[in-house]
Write a structure and sequence with these properties.
This protein is α/β, with parallel strands linked by helices and 324 residues long. The chain has 12 helices and 10 strands. α2 packs across α10.
């Protein structure tokens, strides 16, 4: 067949192939979607993901299956999603460090944290400075003066090296010229018990973990690392009010897609999730857990991740924390 006659047929075939390839995104989702959560089935990330997945299923008429795959500090699940087909049918739900700073903390990662496509930031909980009830200070300003006068004597607990609590404490010490001794634990529960028992002096941790203990007078919350005072802690100042506006620290969770997921899929998911997050019934459910709804556009989610990396990357480097 002469090329002049074959060309229209070739172009027509290419058009059909292109249309077929585009079809899965045009009617997305047309079969069940998996959301892999990189933590165990408990806690904030899991709760937020399951609530959003339920609402997505109701809205889009397809099942959004939540699958917990903990292990390797969340990196095993992240790698699995990273290498999944970029079609929107396998998503990752994770805490913030997975998609922003994991390469600062772990050697030999088989994925690039910033390579993910952030779909939507779900919720966040600010961290707070929490101290044992008998520490001889009345407020946060006295605490800073006390820490400066007693270098190396105060012990601060965290739920692991490189976690938000550890990094916030390092940032706090750098900005205030204080020196405290780090006591890392494996998880939040032992931090709670040892702080109550007086075995450590303080911690920087999401305030919700200590809220009931604070109300019962078993610990004291001296300051929050939030942009403004929290409705649930109206008498507790922010770090900004203490002259430390740089200390904005929170644990947050995000749904992400593999690299090169089509923009039309990302946009559809983002729009649906943002509407879900701002519905009154969902906001009420999150308020019960002290989680604050975030949401926002795709660009906002990307900016959120980038700013998190920029903030804590500097702290990690300055503190000399090496990947393990």
């Amino acid at each position: 067949m002469p090329w002049s006659r074959a060309l229209p047929a070739f172009l027509g075939l290419a058009l059909l192939v292109g249309t077929a390839a585009a079809q899965p995104t045009a009617d997305y989702p047309n079969h069940p979607v998996r959301i892999i959560v990189n933590v165990t089935p408990s806690g904030g990330v899991d709760f937020a993901t399951r609530l959003v997945a339920q609402k997505l299923s109701e809205r889009l008429g397809q099942t959004f299956v939540v699958e917990n795959r903990a292990g390797a500090a969340g990196n095993a699940a992240a790698e699995a999603v990273y290498r999944s087909p970029p079609d929107g049918y396998t998503l990752l739900a994770s805490f913030n460090s997975t998609v922003s700073i994991s390469d600062y903390l772990f050697k030999g990662l088989n994925y690039e944290p910033l390579g993910f496509e952030p779909v939507a930031v779900l919720t966040y909980i600010p961290l707070a400075l929490v101290v044992r009830p008998d520490l001889p200070v009345r407020d946060a300003r006295e605490f800073i003066a006390y820490a400066r006068a007693n270098p190396g004597k105060l012990t601060f607990a965290s739920n692991g090296v490189g976690t938000a609590g550890h990094l916030t404490a390092e940032f706090f010490m750098a900005l205030t010229g204080t020196k405290m001794t780090h006591v890392p634990y494996k998880g939040t529960a032992p931090v709670l018990s040892d702080l109550i028992a007086g075995n450590v002096d303080l911690t920087f941790i999401q305030y919700s973990a200590f809220y009931e203990l604070y109300k019962a007078g078993r610990v004291r919350i001296l300051a929050t690392a939030s942009e403004k005072r929290l409705d649930t802690l109206p008498d507790i100042p922010t770090m900004g009010e203490l002259g430390l506006p740089e200390i904005i620290s929170k644990t947050w969770n995000v749904i992400s897609a593999p690299p090169k997921t089509p923009p039309v899929v990302l946009a559809k998911l983002n729009k649906q999730i943002d509407e879900i997050l701002h519905s009154p019934d969902v906001q009420a459910r999150f308020a019960e857990t002290h989680a604050i709804v975030e949401g926002g556009s795709l660009d906002y989610a990307k900016k959120y991740v980038a700013e998190d990396r920029a903030r804590w990357g500097k702290v990690i480097t300055a503190a000399g924390i090496k990947p393990e």
